[in-house]
Specification:
Elements (H helix, E strand, L loop, with lengths): L9 H21 L8 H10 L12 H12 L4 H25 L4 H13 L1 H7 L4 H22 L4 H13 L5 H13 L11 H22 L3 H12 L6 H12 L4 H12 L8 H16 L8 H22 L2 H22 L5 H10 L18 H4 L4 H13 L3 H4 L3 E4 L2 H10 L8 E3 L3 H5 L9 E4 L3 H7 E10 L11 E9 L3 H7 L5
Helix pairs in contact: 1-4, 1-5, 2-3, 2-21, 4-5, 4-6, 4-7, 4-15, 5-15, 5-16, 6-16, 7-8, 7-15, 8-10, 9-14, 13-14, 13-15, 14-15, 19-21
């Protein structure tokens, strides 16, 4: 029997990697309500209430999922995070299947799945409702289909690849880089002959057809994502050095997984056992070089590592078998689980915030995993941005209730960024607050609504800027929270009256794509 055919124990192998996937699911569910909504989750839920073929920051997929969730399961933390948690469990399972496609037996499949489960970057991303969780799942699924094409030579699978890639493109535009990596891998290996057949091109046509509505949306809206990307890269992205970039990749995947990753690189690029999968290896090299050159966020590489880890698990399984290293073979997963337990509180809200601050400090602060130029204190950004939103909106509601009755109907809440606006729109419903308006990203496209010049409650906008827009600007309250982002703490909330500029013209000029 060929080693790639279904072995007698494939059901047991599948069950074991399925158990690891369920372990990841259970881990997330156990702490799903520990903190609160993350800033971006509030924005994504708002996008679900404004369905369109695109948004300033991403394609329409996340808005569609947000709308589906809110209309079925609701908008509780559990409901909001259930789908990304499922996606994370699916990613762990598929990583194990990729190892099987590479020729790995039970140990390799389980080790690959365990490495994906242990990776801090994947734990953090799959705990939140957002584009990263779904892009990573679809990316790894597309890799699985690609590996099957390379192994079996079944060219019709390119049609399935096109469907997955199209879904990925409608989730996050970084999926374009995945397509480029596949093309690069094919061109640099003997598999380039596949490009002489119609099947890869038909798969590409399917992906393009699925992506076309968003492409047309970008054209009709004057390419807002390009504007955002240029602004973001020029001022907001953390400018990591090469050494920092390498360090962040090691820490995000997990230092204890480094031997598996190095073995995977060897397997894909040099080992004769991996000769048939060189396209995967060269694609990974292309992405590493490209993302480093672009100063991309460290987590863009996260799904790339899954295939490398799967290959490495196969290589280590082979070496352990040939060298008779049965003791090391058994000990290594235990070491990896121990390491994952140590780093998990840095990725998931396992500890109460006061303990998380101490633990975070003991393990080196945010472990150097920076992707934005923001001030931090105590908690890393992905934790701090979960604090303060309900309290902020409750304070806004007090201010709103204090307005004269004849002013309430014409009042709007103007927010400096989509986090504040999303919080007002979600938590403000129970207080009967008017909807938030903002010039930040997609909120700018949604416009100021029917605002006709009444009083404005302003959050997160500098007083000097407000004074250029209104005749009267008064500090109504100051929001504080010990665990939120420093930029949110000690934030004044203003009540403004007497708009002195033309609203339509001012709004058109005020787009804040960042």
């Amino acid at each position: 029997m060929d080693r790639h055919e279904t072995p007698r124990g494939w059901q047991a192998d599948t069950a074991l990697i399925g158990l690891l996937a369920l372990a990841k699911l259970a881990l997330h569910l156990a702490f799903v309500n520990r903190y609160g909504y993350f800033r971006d989750e509030l924005y994504y839920l708002a996008c679900g209430r404004h369905l369109d073929w695109g948004y300033v920051d991403f394609p329409p997929g996340i808005g569609l999922l947000a709308a589906l969730l809110q209309r079925t399961l609701g908008d509780s933390l559990l409901a909001t995070r259930f789908l990304p948690i499922l996606a994370g469990a699916g990613l762990v399972f598929i990583t194990g299947l990729i190892a099987r496609e590479f020729g790995g037996k039970r140990y390799a499949q389980c080790l690959a799945a365990l490495c994906a489960l242990a990776a801090p970057v994947l734990l953090a991303n799959h705990h939140l409702f957002g584009v990263n969780a779904f892009e990573q799942f679809l990316w790894v699924l597309a890799v699985y289909v690609f590996v099957r094409i390379l192994r079996t030579g079944e060219l019709k699978l390119w049609l399935v690849f096109g469907l997955v890639a199209g879904a990925g493109l409608m989730t996050k535009l970084t999926f374009l880089f995945f397509g480029m990596s596949v093309l690069t891998g094919l061109l640099l290996t003997r598999h380039r002959r596949m490009l002489l057949t119609p099947w890869p091109w038909l798969g590409g046509a399917i992906a393009l057809a699925l992506f076309l509505p968003h492409l047309l949306w970008q054209i009709t809206h004057d390419w807002p994502t390009l504007t955002l990307t240029a602004a973001y890269a020029s001022g907001k992205t953390y400018d990591a050095s090469l050494l920092e970039a390498v360090y962040m990749q090691i820490m995000s995947v997990h230092p204890f997984s480094a031997p598996v990753w190095l073995a995977g690189l060897w397997f894909l690029l040099w080992d004769k056992e991996g000769k048939n999968y060189r396209a995967i290896g060269w694609g990974a090299v292309f992405l590493a070089v490209t993302f480093t050159a672009l100063k991309a966020k460290f987590y863009w590489m996260a799904p790339v590592h899954c295939a490398v880890l799967a290959a490495g698990a196969c290589a280590l399984e082979k070496v352990a078998r040939e060298k008779g290293w049965s003791g090391l073979k058994c000990a290594y997963p235990a070491v990896l689980v121990t390491g994952a337990a140590l780093t998990a509180p840095l990725a998931l809200p396992i500890l109460p915030p006061e303990q998380a601050v101490v633990y975070n400090g003991l393990l080196g602060g945010d472990a150097g995993l920076r992707h934005e130029k923001v001030a931090l204190r105590g908690l890393p950004q992905h934790f701090a941005d979960m604090f303060g939103w309900p309290e902020l909106v409750a304070l806004v509601a007090e201010i709103y209730e204090g307005l004269p009755e004849d002013e309430k109907s014409g009042c709007v809440i103007l927010c400096g960024d989509y986090g504040n606006a999303g919080a007002v729109d979600l938590f403000g419903q129970k207080y009967g607050l008017p909807r938030a308006i903002s010039t930040h990203n997609a909120y700018h496209l949604w416009g100021p609504g029917e605002y006709a010049g009444g009083p404005v409650i302003a959050i997160g906008i500098a007083e000097d800027e407000l004074k250029t827009l209104f005749d009267e600007t008064t500090v109504a309250a100051t929001f504080t929270n010990p665990y939120c982002m420093p930029s949110e703490d000690n934030k004044p909330i203003f009540v403004c009256r007497g708009l002195r500029v033309d609203l339509e013209q001012a709004w058109a000029r005020a787009a804040n794509y960042m």
